[in-house]
Amino acid sequence: MSDIGIDRPRSDLALPVGGDVKDFVALLKPRVMSLVIFTALVGMVAAPGGIHPLLGGIALLSIAVGAGASGALNMWYDADIDAQMARTAARPIPRGKVTPSEALCFGTILSVLSVLCLGLLVNWVAGALLALTIAFYIFVYTMWLKRRTSQNIVIGGAAGAFPPMVGWAAVTGSVSLESILLFAIIFMWTPPHFWALSLYRARDYERVGVPMLPVVAGLVETRRQILIYSVLLLPIGMSPWFIGLGGIAYLVTSSVLGAYFLWLAVDVYRIKDDDTDADARAKRLFLFSIFYLFALFAVLLLEHSALRLIGWLA
Hints:
Elements: H1 21-27, H2 30-46, H3 53-77, H4 79-82, H5 100-121, H6 124-145, H7 152-156, H8 158-161, H9 163-172, H10 177-200, H11 202-208, H12 213-216, H13 219-242, H14 248-269, H15 278-313
């Protein structure tokens, strides 16, 4: 673990105000939000018992708004480095569409409202978990880990793994082994997913001084870590079947896709420094990792939806 400390410039980055609705929507990181909503929905559907459709909708909306609020606060804090990175330079704050203070107020208000709404209208276990998710992403990952250690994405990745647990708690009012396993799948998936991206974006992170693993430990070590986490991910991805949370369709899907995920990780591990297709191979793993996670949760959703339908028709 690296202990590199990087101080964030404290300038307010004063920018002209000209944001419209689409700019504030962009602050919510819609693509990230869509994955949060989907995994939270799977947690709700897979949970035992049921929830009134209105309360279920409120829970999903609260989780979505909480995730979006986290994104806005992340963009507020990281505005200085976002402006210098090709991947993030088009975000609303670097483009001058939204000021940092507007993003801070927007994210803070949405954070409070999402937690209160979920807690008061659904249950406080889910509300507390949502509050923990937001706080972990902002204070632990964004403010503490991201600029100080190469293990930032390993520990900070927990924030992205909470949504199915929050969805489960919205239905049951509790945390169980099943929801912890859903958390564990995303938690173990995050490092190889994000490190694959960082392999071909390493220059961006190096330029802004963020100690992502390729910058601190080098490309070879990053590839080795991707392989290690991919090996660990394979059985964890299959684990819902072993406890009855997933059916035979899930077992087949998680086995086949997990094996292919591992094969791609091995392919990335075998990259040599002079390989001209190194970035393409890393990008292939990154893109497949998104499909892998979506497919696993989609099969769980279909299996549990089918079981509920059969139960209603019986």
